[in-house]
Amino acid sequence: MEPILQIENASTERGTVFWLRNVNLTLEPGIFMGVIGRNGAGKTTLFHMICGLSRISGGDLRLAGVSMRHEPKRCKREMGIIFDDDYFRLDLSVKHAGIIYGAYYDRYSQAVFLNYCRKFEVDIKQNLRKLSKGNYMKFQLAFALAHHPKLILMDEPEARLDPVFRREWMNLLYDVLDDTCSVLFATHLTEELEQYADAVTMLSKGQQVFSLTMLELEEQYKIVRGSKEELDALSERLLGRRRMEHYEEGLFREDGEGLQGKNSVSRPSLADLMYYLDGRD
Fold first, then answer.
1. pLDDT surpassing 70 at residue 214
2. Beta strands 182-186; 32-36: pairing state
3. Which of 111, 115, 140, 145 is deepest in the core (most CB within 10 A)?
4. Does 205 share its domain with 180?
5. Domain count, the chain
6. Helices in 55-190 by DSSP H: which ranges?
7. SS3 content of the chain, % helix, strand, coil (to 5)
């Protein structure tokens, strides 16, 4: 089956400065992929490149086999976008926003949009400006689903929401995901991703660190804990280390030789990976 999203050595730049360089990732149908990185890592730039707001200066990006560089309008019709910014006229009611913006999409259905609004408990008569942050997100999701996108893009939409709603939101996304559509979800809040994501791409300072499935991450990276002397013996094989209160720990990438000794080995969290691999000077 053809990938939903295929990015090959894609870069975007302004003048002589690269904002994002040589990104490679593949998103298969029905997959929920998280994009992580610290503030300024390039997550929003990546999303702007995918949805055509930033010019692709090198490489290519294909959505359902269609090149963004050569057929941007056709590509954009296959995306549903949920960003933290306001891309809709806020003086419209929910119902009329669907009518007006739905006209830009060939496969948009107002009936499907209204059904999702009812399912998500969004008042279709309410003015967009008066919707709560959570209901505005639900409105955006209902609209995105109503034009049957192949890819749903979400750029940190949950950053200002309380933890309870964030969990409800992730459950909602998981319920609507199927094998005809994939989700690309950028966030610096990693706890929910560990439960829901099938794969993760990490960015740091405009560079891609990795793009792996959760299983591949678990197989390739390990947290190693032990005494200073034990970690000194592994220093050349560690990607980073830090001193804790009663021990030291480091990040180890599997190299086929395994680990010897009495070290404690565990799976790193996504927060651990961000700490050790974020490319700090």
1. yes
2. parallel
3. 140
4. yes
5. 2
6. 72-76, 94-102, 110-119, 133-146, 163-176
7. 35, 30, 35
* 3-class SS of residue 242: strand
Domain termination residue (choose one: 178, 212, 246): 212
Q: Both 185 and 149 in a single domain?
A: yes
**How many residues are recorded in the chain?**
281
d(CA 111, CA 145): 11
Q: Is the pLDDT of residue 2 over 60?
A: yes
Residue 280 has pLDDT above 60, yes or no: no
> What's the domain range around 88?
5-212
- From the list 88, 91, 133, 130, the residue with the least C-alpha distance to 113 is 88
* Residue in this structure with the two tokens 């990938």, named with its chain if needed: 3
Calculate the alpha carbon distances from 165 to 32, 156, 159 in Å: 19, 14, 11
Q: Is the domain of 62 the same as that of 171? A: yes
Prediction pTM value: 0.89
Among 212, 234, 250, the domain boundary falls at 212
**Contact residues for 140 (Cβ-Cβ < 8 A; gap 6+):** 81, 82, 88, 157
